[in-house]
Amino acid sequence: MDDIIIIGSNIPLIEDLQRSFNSELHMKDLGHLYYFLGLQVHSMSNGISLHQHKYTQEIFLLGGLESGNIVLTPLEINLKLC
Q1: Which of 14, 28, 56, 65 has the smallest number of CB atoms closer than 10 Å to its CB?
Q2: Which has the closest alpha carbon to 5: 27, 25, 56, 52?
Q3: Does an H or E element contain 31, and which?
């Protein structure tokens, strides 16, 4: 296993899980998650926001499309995925 993300609201349970993993595996706690597999992660009081802005900028640069026009794609506002 290369990477694992542990999320939740029960901090003592998360810490217990980390100790359990660390007793069986060599594991480093890298702290809060900010970037993972091309996704930028922002923690907020009401949840987590994920976006790929950095990734798409890199793709545009590779393709020479950085001076292209932006087209908005309407999405439902405040859509919650379950």
Answers
A1: 28
A2: 27
A3: none
